User: Which sequence fits this backbone?
């Protein structure tokens, strides 16, 4: 399986419309990949709280349209990162979108764990309530967004739902980059699954982004890692390694709390 992680830079001097077009061009440039992944809230910036209200869009708004067209043109499965969604009742959500190679939206995941404690996303946005998986021809994706990475129970739920490749779209700050790498590897090892973790580059509301998107295999080995700037990280991996790892080292069968294999 070939996956391309687009670590796009968010520049406050670039308009959202311009960045949408640029992101679409980067997606189209990944023809030949099986899966393409964008980061969290790349249209506006994960820490650009003051722009959330103005840049919120309906689920089928301009980002949805542009990304659907890009997925179809490239012929790829596309995890289009997340947008500030405005629901019909006016509630804002941090919502990730997934498209098929035909440009059909096949999933929308509203972020469950909102970051910010008593400010920012935590008070401005509603919380999602449902785990989301997406079946691809060679693997099943489990969807998570940024702060979700700190909550292992979410990932166990995704594994119980059949996930073999855990996709984390993030806007992770540079000052906690060590946690980013550590937690991505931990989620891979404890769930014996691939982790595709893609972050942003640039600076959101004066918060430097970590970059360093990475792909981790079911044994916790980092197969590829980006640098700090804008970059497309492409890696080929054997999706079948999840099953062989779980067979050779069947730790998940020894679970005493929660479902067992």
Assistant:
């Amino acid at each position: 399986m070939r996956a391309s992680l687009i670590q796009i830079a968010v520049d406050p001097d670039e308009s959202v419309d311009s960045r949408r077009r640029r992101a679409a061009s980067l997606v189209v440039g990944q023809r030949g990949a099986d899966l393409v992944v964008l980061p969290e809230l790349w249209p506006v910036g994960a820490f650009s709280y003051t722009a959330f209200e103005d840049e919120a869009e309906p689920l089928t708004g301009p980002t949805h349209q542009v990304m659907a067209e890009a997925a179809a043109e490239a012929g790829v499965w596309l995890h289009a990162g997340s947008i500030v969604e405005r629901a019909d009742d006016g509630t804002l959500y941090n919502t990730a979108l997934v498209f098929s190679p035909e440009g059909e939206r096949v999933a929308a995941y509203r972020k469950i764990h909102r970051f910010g404690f008593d400010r920012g996303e935590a008070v401005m946005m509603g919380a999602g309530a449902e785990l989301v998986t997406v079946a691809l021809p060679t693997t099943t994706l489990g969807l998570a967004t940024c702060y979700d990475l700190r909550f292992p129970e979410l990932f166990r739920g995704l594994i119980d739902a059949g996930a073999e490749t855990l996709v984390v779209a993030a806007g992770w700050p540079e000052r906690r980059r060590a946690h980013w790498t550590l937690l991505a590897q931990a989620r891979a090892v404890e769930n014996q699954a691939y982790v595709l973790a893609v972050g942003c580059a640039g600076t959101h509301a004066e918060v430097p982004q970590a970059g360093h998107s990475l792909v981790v295999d079911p044994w916790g080995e980092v197969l590829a890692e980006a640098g700090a700037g804008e970059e497309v990280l492409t890696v080929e991996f054997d999706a079948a390694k999840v099953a062989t790892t779980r067979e050779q080292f069947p730790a998940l069968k020894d679970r005493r709390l929660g479902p067992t294999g």
Remarks:
- The chain has one domain: 2-254.
